[in-house]
Amino acid sequence: MTVVDTTPATLREAPIPPDGMYEGPRILRRVPEEWEERPYERFELAPLGRVIGAEVRGLDLSRPLDPALREELNRALLEWKVLFFRGQHLTPERQRGFARHWGELETNPLLAAGTSEDVVRFDKGSGATPTFENIWHTDVTFRTRPALGAVLQLREVPPVGGDTLWADMAAAYDNLPAEVKDRIDGATAVHDFIPGFSRFYGPERLAPFQEMFPPVEHPVVRTHPETGRRMLFVNTSFTTRITGMERAESDRLLSFLCRQAHVPEYQVRFHWQPGDIAFWDNRATQHYAVNDYAPHRRVAERVAIEGDQPF
């Protein structure tokens, strides 16, 4: 006779670290639930990721945008968060003209300028002062009104490497545990330019800008002004602490929140060719420029569009 062991199975104690990242299904919602899906009539859209990133085909960005085309591109930007345009080879003037359809252009005195003060030039490998963007970040959150978005064009690409990744911070928020959402609902955090820029500039270079860019507070979870989606709005480069929390608690929570950008399901990765353009929604994303191409040169020019005050 076979004897069946009915003793309940038990497992040894093996606790995992708190605030860990876990496997399993994730909520991958590209747009708000009430979003009206409509076809694009003026161009072809080729998705590169599940929730973020699409290539726009069939457009010459050197030609003026009429209001209807601008509306379609803006709808695509809200839906996909970052748009890619291959082989445009725009002059800086044309690049600036395209970006101006979304607002006034921003200047950044902390970075090297190109042909005008509202064009930032990243010239890597030519002996210029190096800057480092190989960290997940949202641009200029140390401003009261961080940039709405940015238009980046690669002028020269290395033979290997130099990709850029973007992460959808609405997807990152959607997948937070309920108890974490409760903790950060209504919370604010301090943002400061010094942590991000002190990695490559000394005090003598940064001190003159302290009055121009004092620390600012933004919501830990901001609401997108056009889509209404809630998004994580903290980043490793510029967010220093959560207001009203003890330092140890703030550091632990910020570390957990910033790690959400690292999840591949929320990301898209783009491999550049000369003349390619990326146009991203800085309100809804973080990005990471992969620094794996030394000693080769990589030259990019970026124009940024003035944004609104997060709420």
Automatic annotation (TrEMBL):
Which intervals of the chain form a coiled coil? none
Give one Pfam family, short name only: TauD
Q: Where is the TauD/TfdA-like domain?
A: 46-302
Any keyword Oxidoreductase?
A: yes
Annotated InterPro entries: AtsK-like, TauD-like_sf, TauD/TfdA-like
UniProt-recorded Gene Ontology molecular function terms = dioxygenase activity
Q: Which UniProt keywords are given for this protein, alphabetically ordered?
A: Dioxygenase, Iron, Metal-binding, Oxidoreductase
Which organism is this protein's natural source? Answer: Streptomyces mordarskii
Q: Which family does it belong to?
A: Belongs to the TfdA dioxygenase family.
Top-rank lineage group of the source organism = Bacteria
Q: What is this protein called?
A: TauD/TfdA family dioxygenase
